[in-house]
Design goal:
Number of strands: 20
Helix content: 25-40%
Structural class: alpha/beta
CATH architecture of the largest domain: 3-Layer(aba) Sandwich
Strand order of the largest sheet: 13-12-9-14-17-18-19-20
C-alpha cells in the first residue's frame, strides 16, 4: 500500500556532491504521488540547478530568505507549517551544526528551526568529518530534539576515501518515509496514556512534599507515541517542559488529581506510568502558613497507588500496563518485586545513583523487565532515543 500518496513533503537540498541524489529522491517521491516543495541552499545550487528540480518536482524552488516575491507568496513560517514532513537530503556537517546550535542565517535553517513537523535528515560528508567529535555531539543534540536520522552508509566517497558518511541511497530514504507514514496510519486508532513528572502534596499553602523527577523521560515517551500515530494523553505533574500540540496535556499537582485524571482518560490501549508519584500525603493540610517551630510533626497517610489500581482493575485495565522503577541499588531485584506486586506487564527500571543519567539529565540507561523473567537493556543514550525504542517494543507487542 502506498502511504506516501498525497503527502506534502518539504525537501531541503544542501551543498555537497550527494546533492545530485536529491533529484532521484524527487523522482521517486513524485512517482508515489507526493506533493513536493523544495528549498535549495546557496551551496546546494553549486551542484544542482533550480531548473532541474522544478522540472522533476513540478513546483517552485525556494532559495532566498529575504526574497520579497517568495515571502509574499508563502512566508518561511507558512512553508514550515505546509509540510506533513521535512526531509533534509543531503544534510551537510555545516547544516547539522546550524540546526544543533540554533543558528538560522538562511531559509533552510530558518524553516527547520521554525517547524513543528517531523524532520528527517540524511547526512552526507567525508568520513573524517562524520567521525569528528563536533559532528558526533551535534548529531546527539539533534536526536534529543527528535530529529530522525537516515544513514549515513559506509562506502566509497567522491573524494576517493572509504568509510561512513555516504548519503543513503534515494530508494532507502523513500522507504524510510513510507514506513513512517505507514506506522502513523496503523497506530492512529490506538490510545495511550502517559504519566510524568513529580506530584506535590501540600503541608500548608506554601510548603509541600514531593519526589525528585524532571519528567523528561515521560515527556519523550509521549512524544514518541504521538509521532508514531497514537492518540496520546500526557498527565503531568509540575514541570517546565513543553509538548507537541497534538498531545493532550493534562496538568496536575497532587497524586489524587493524577489518579482522577487517569481514570477520566480511560479506556486506553496502553498506559505508561513514569511519574514519580508521592507515596504519602499530609493527613491534615493547614489552611494557613505554619510558622517556624523547633519541631514539626506531620501525620501522613498513603496516597492511592495508581499503577496498582489500574493494573488490577478488570474493566479499566489497558491491554498493556507499564510501570517505572527508579532505584539506587539492587535494580533487578526491586524491579521484579514491583512487577509482581503491581501485576503490571512491564517494568522499566533505571539506576538513579548514577548522576549522569536519570534525574534532570537528557540521557538515560534503562532495563525492561517482563513477566516471563526475561529482560532487555537499553544502553546509555538520549532519552528521546530510549523512548523511540520503548515505543517500537510497545507497537510490536500490541500487534
Amino acid at each position: 500500500m502506498n502511504n506516501l500518496n498525497n503527502k506534502k513533503i518539504l525537501l531541503i537540498i544542501c551543498g555537497g556532491i550527494a546533492a545530485y541524489k536529491s533529484l532521484e529522491i524527487i523522482r521517486l517521491l513524485k512517482k508515489c504521488g507526493v506533493i513536493i516543495k523544495t528549498i535549495l541552499t546557496k551551496n546546494g545550487a553549486e551542484f544542482v540547478t533550480p531548473l532541474s528540480i522544478t522540472s522533476l518536482s513540478q513546483s517552485k524552488v525556494y532559495q532566498d530568505l529575504f526574497n520579497i516575491e517568495d515571502e509574499a507568496e508563502m512566508d518561511h513560517i507558512s512553508l514550515s507549517r505546509w509540510a506533513d514532513l521535512i526531509l533534509i537530503a543531503p544534510a551537510t556537517a555545516n547544516t547539522i551544526s546550524k540546526l544543533a546550535n540554533g543558528n538560522s542565517d538562511d531559509l533552510a535553517s530558518t524553516v527547520a528551526l521554525a517547524s513543528n513537523k517531523k524532520i528527517f535528515i540524511a547526512p552526507a560528508m567525508n568520513v573524517r568529518m562524520w567521525d569528528h567529535q563536533s559532528t558526533k555531539q551535534n548529531i546527539a543534540k539533534l536526536k534529543t530534539y527528535n530529529y530522525k536520522l537516515i544513514g549515513p552508509e559506509i562506502g566509497d566517497m567522491a573524494c576517493g576515501e572509504y568509510g561512513e558518511g555516504k548519503m543513503s541511497e534515494p530508494i532507502s530514504i523513500v522507504n524510510e518515509l513510507e514506513n513512517y507514514f505507514k506506522s502513523l496510519k496503523k497506530n492512529n486508532k490506538l490510545k495511550a496514556i502517559v504519566t510524568a513528572g513529580p506530584t506535590n502534596e501540600y503541608i500548608d499553602p506554601v510548603r509541600f512534599i514531593t519526589n525528585k523527577s524532571s519528567g523528561k523521560q515521560g515527556y519523550e515517551i509521549a512524544k514518541s507515541l504521538s509521532n508514531k500515530g497514537f492518540d496520546t494523553t500526557l498527565i503531568s505533574g509540575p514541570t517546565n517542559l513543553k509538548v507537541n500540540d497534538n498531545i493532550n496535556l493534562i496538568k496536575i499537582e497532587t497524586a489524587e488529581e493524577m489518579f482522577q485524571s487517569t481514570l477520566n482518560s480511560l479506556p486506553a490501549d496502553v498506559a505508561i506510568f513514569s511519574a514519580a508519584v508521592s507515596d504519602y500525603k499530609v493527613k491534615n493540610v493547614s489552611k494557613e502558613k505554619i510558622k517556624k517551630k523547633d519541631n514539626l510533626n506531620l501525620e501522613l497517610e498513603k496516597n492511592v497507588d495508581i499503577l496498582n489500581y489500574i493494573s488490577n482493575h478488570n474493566s479499566l485495565r489497558p491491554k498493556l500496563v507499564i510501570g517505572f522503577a527508579a532505584e539506587t541499588n539492587n535494580l533487578e531485584k526491586h524491579a521484579y518485586e514491583k512487577l509482581n506486586e503491581k501485576s503490571c506487564d512491564w517494568i522499566i527500571g533505571n539506576d538513579v545513583s548514577n548522576k549522569k543519567i536519570g534525574f534532570d539529565s537528557d540521557f538515560n540507561e534503562v532495563s525492561i523487565f517482563y513477566k516471563n523473567k526475561n529482560s532487555e537493556k537499553i544502553k546509555y543514550k538520549p532519552k528521546s532515543e530510549i523512548s523511540d525504542e520503548v515505543v517500537e517494543k510497545i507497537i510490536n507487542h500490541l500487534n
